[in-house]
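Troubleshooting log. The previous structure file for this entry was overwritten by mistake, so regenerating from the original sequence record. Sequence copied from the archived sheet and checked twice against the printout by T.R.
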Amino acid sequence: MDAVWSTTVVAVIALVIDIAIRVFALIVVPINRRPQTATAWLLAIFLIPYVGFILFVLLGSAKLPKGRRDKQVEINRYIIETTHGMDRVVRENPWPEWLQPVVELNRTLGAMPLVGGNDATIFTAYDESLAAMTEAVEKSTRYVHVEFYIVSFDSTTKPFFDALEAAVARGVTVRVLLDHIASVRSPRYLRTIRTLRRIGVDWRLMLPVQPWRGRYQRPDLRNHRKIVVVDGEIAFTGSQNLVDSSYNKRGNVRRGLVWKDLMVRFEGPIVAGINALFVTDWYSETDELLLRETQPPLEDPKPNALDAQVVPSGPGFEGENNLRLFNALLYNAGERVIITSPYFVPDESMLYAITTAAQRGLDVQLFCSEVADQPLVYHAQRSYYEELLRAGVRIWLYAAPTVLHAKHFTIDDEVAVIGSSNMDMRSFSLNLEISVMIRSHRFVDALREIEEDYRSTSRELTLDEWLTRPARSRVLDNLARLTSAVQ
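Regenerated output below.
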């Protein structure tokens, strides 16, 4: 009798807790969330109440701790007060009428202005971009700022680490930021940390998940930026991490996978904007505000100078800055939109913007990889192909075994955006990213040549081909699409 009574009590308690979780979820989950995200969380909690509830508690908030957000507001005020180079923007014809509101949008969201008088060089070869960054460090005289999602000491990156060590030896201040979770999950992490300590750089983990040290936030809020700044005069940013192009993973080596990226070397006032992001992230991790190093000396504008604007984004901001920029540009495009994104999992607003552009008769093209390193994202991405193809978007699949990891897109012949941001919900809501919007026919023309090179190495996916894929692939794609919204 006692056993029956005990079982009954346990069952009643479990039922009460189960009902309480479901009621809690219905009240709390939809607050300030997209309907699709709220629906995905509710589905998870209702199907697996205890597991879903625990995951929601751990992963349900896409905001950084309040202290970090306050620091972002503080540094934004400084950026607004001390920016130079706005007077160098050339607003002569054919300055698009729609561009100024987009510039103002970016300024409102991320504090960075559009600045003129800049020069840019594009690197598409992995070794060439790494060699260019190494050469810049070798010539440094004052300071070097390095910030990457993944930092790994290996045979490919050794020359760069050697350049950092030599810079420290001659009295240059070298600071290094690396994302904690991304780097610790990469092979050779401990060796990398030992190397950073040995060469004497000042280094910190970004967004560390170390609750035993009082450092904790949602574990999948990550700093995905890639930045190198040398003496406030030269800056590099783009999609490439500081690691071998195979990422040193056995599975990648076995499959022959190599990453193809795009990095840009900047000179001019835009360097200060890129460095301001490093200053912000350094301040967040160390409480040291490097105000004296934010502004470079201004020189005469370069010939054929371009206008550029840094657009920071991430959970430190109230809005999804990169998503708002991308959608604004998509809706203002008048001729063509060409997107390169390794992880393409758009939210509903971006999917509408892209398909609407195609349905307006624009030339809309998407470059992504035939293969991928992340199965869940890969299948979620594929779930959008049919809708895109039916709308008239041309999809190009870059040939295996190369993973096309570059992140950029062009609007007409006017504007380009490059940086670290993918076109997926993780980059919009969970990752700290850097995007640079560039207004320059010369720069867009250079990207057009790169896009043509992609096209020559890719095959075009057709709707007829896609509709004949196996049923099991359809099921996997659609299931993965559901999980992509759980943020």
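The chain has three domains: 2-59, 66-311, 321-484. Archived copy saved in two places this time.
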